[in-house]
Design brief:
about 110 residues; alpha+beta; 4-stranded antiparallel sheet; 4 helices; 4 strands
């Protein structure tokens, strides 16, 4: 008698979709640090929107007049290479007087592993 292979039963119908989406994402960690001025978030977010980079998570604080923002983004839909996005955001940061650092998620994770 031939044995039939069966797929595991999924209790969460969206689980496969989420896993597939996660596997095609190209996550980048963007950090922005510098003296607080008007328009920092607007400049960075406008660039990301114009280049089809999705913001997945964002956190920002201002302490003692210094601005600090960290973003997790998905750059998979962008037509630009990752290195171009890195360079463009670095230039934008210089123009507005902040430091912008962009890293691939896997590199960030390796550097911050304890």
């Amino acid at each position: 008698m031939q044995q039939i292979k069966r797929s595991p039963i999924r209790t969460d119908p969206g689980a496969a979709t989420r896993n597939e989406e996660e596997s095609i994402m190209q996550k980048a960690i963007i950090s922005v640090v510098g003296k607080d001025t008007v328009g920092i978030i607007a400049k960075v977010c406008t660039y990301l929107a114009e280049n089809t980079c999705n913001i997945l998570d964002i956190s920002q604080t201002i302490t003692g007049g210094y601005f600090n923002m960290m973003m997790i983004t998905d750059t998979a839909a962008s037509e630009k290479k990752f290195s171009e996005i890195q360079n463009d955001l670095k230039v934008i940061g210089e123009e507005i007087g902040v430091t912008v650092h962009v890293q691939r998620e896997e590199i960030f994770d390796m550097m911050h592993r304890v």
